[in-house]
Amino acid sequence: MRVGVIGGGQLARMMVPPAVALGIDIRVLAEGEGMSAAIAARAIGDYRDLDTVLAFAADVDVITFDHEHVPQNVLAALVAAGHAVHPGPDALAVAQDKIVMRERLTGLGAPVPDWAVVHDAVALGVFLDAHGGEAVVKTPRGGYDGKGVRVVRSTEAADDWFALAAAGTGEGLLVEELVDFRRELAQLVARRPSGEVRAWPLVETVQRDGVCAEVFAPAPSSGELPEAARALATRMATELGVTGVLAVELFETNDGRLLINELAMRPHNTGHWTIDGAVTSQFEQHLRAVLDLPLGDPSPIAPWSVMVNILGGPTGATMPDRYGVAFADRPEVKFHSYGKESRAGRKVGHVTAIGSELDDTVARARAAAGFFQA
User: Fold this and answer.
1) Distance CA 323, CA 331 (A)
2) Please, what are the domains in the chain?
3) What does residue 121 show for φ and ψ, rounded to 5 degrees?
4) CA 190 vs CA 94, 125, 145, 283: distances in Å
5) What is the pLDDT of residue 374?
6) What is the DSSP string of 295-351?
7) Which of 203, 247, 355, 371 is the Cys-Cys partner for 361 at CB 3.0 to 4.6 Å?
8) Mean pLDDT of 74-101
9) What percent of the chain has pLDDT over 70?
């Protein structure tokens, strides 16, 4: 079984260990030398170039992705050439464009924030007036980890983005209500082409400056929310035709509702805890799913798992530079390096602690991460 992964980031890197364990030949098309998944890179090239991607796909059984940015014309050409592509172009179109995402989710009757497409400051002003003078503006494509997202409270606050859109694609911007939420949650499921779906526990996420900083699994004090989130994510995966892992990022509102914030159709940062905290990790499950193999048990192996991202750190350093002191102090914590040099705000790795008591597990994970943050 040969799986080709387009994109050489840390998500592709973390697919390598389960692929090796399962005897799967995993091959990566990386964007450049020295990327996180260089260990499995069989080709270096531009994922936007059709000839490069078709040549890479010629020697694998299925194509999957480290990110959602492969252009639709390239995806369509892969399918037309007879290659298995999971998730497929129609599903990925929803993840690639936030306006398309909102249109599709609204059409399915899924719970989402109030939203509109705006092309100028006048239209933005109308939305602001109807929503208490504040809103969230998003660029339709390319935003992640806090990029391409802006809270606005004036009609001029997005003038630069309107100018770029007018000079480029002419696309509008997505504007949404600024949701009054209690906390952010994430529900991950995996679906195989034949229809089987498996779900991990609902998790709580802590965001800092638009970037996921911590994940608590399962989400504490959730009441009936886990069942509702699992049902919602399963329905989205099925109705959108997603194959592989689907991450549904959610707001829990102060009045107890769930609203869908974003979708990601690949392994996701909020599921990294599953490597050390679940019977089947999201990376193994993704490989099983895209190969249409029976899915593994997603159950947690401990009452609590806490994942903390390593963001930034000393400029020019890498996580292994501090392994000696970190390993000695926290031998029970799992450390994951993405093979990247540190710089401000960059995700260079994560740590995961598991335990029987939440506060203690949180403290141990944060202490372990602290060795790499200063």
Assistant:
1) 11
2) 2-85 (3.40.50.20), 114-177 (3.30.1490.20), 181-370 (3.30.470.20)
3) -65, -30
4) 17, 40, 22, 10
5) 64
6) PPP--BSSSEEEEEEEE--STT--GGGGHHHHHHH-TTSEEEE-S----TT-EEEEE
7) 355
8) 97
9) 97
Q: How many CB atoms lie within 10 A of CB 122?
A: 9
Instruction: Say if residues 5 and 66 touch (Cβ distance below 8 Å).
Output: yes
Q: What's 46's DSSP letter?
A: -
What are the angstrom distances between the C-alpha of 151 and each of 146, 178, 210?
Answer: 11, 8, 11
CA distance 138 to 341: 29
Which residue from 113, 255, 100 is spatially nearest to 175, judged by alpha carbons? 113
Residues 336-371: pLDDT tens digits?
999 988 887 789 999 999 999 999 999 999 999 999
Tokens of 158: 């997005």
pTM above 0.85, yes or no: yes
Residue 76, Cβ neighbours under 10 Å: how many? 15
Measured CA to CA, the distance from residue 138 to residue 148 in angstroms comes to 6
Q: Which residues contact 288 (CB under 8 A, 6 or more apart)?
A: 190, 192, 280, 294, 295, 296
C-alpha distance from residue 221 to each of 51, 178, 199, 202, 269 (Å): 51, 24, 19, 11, 22
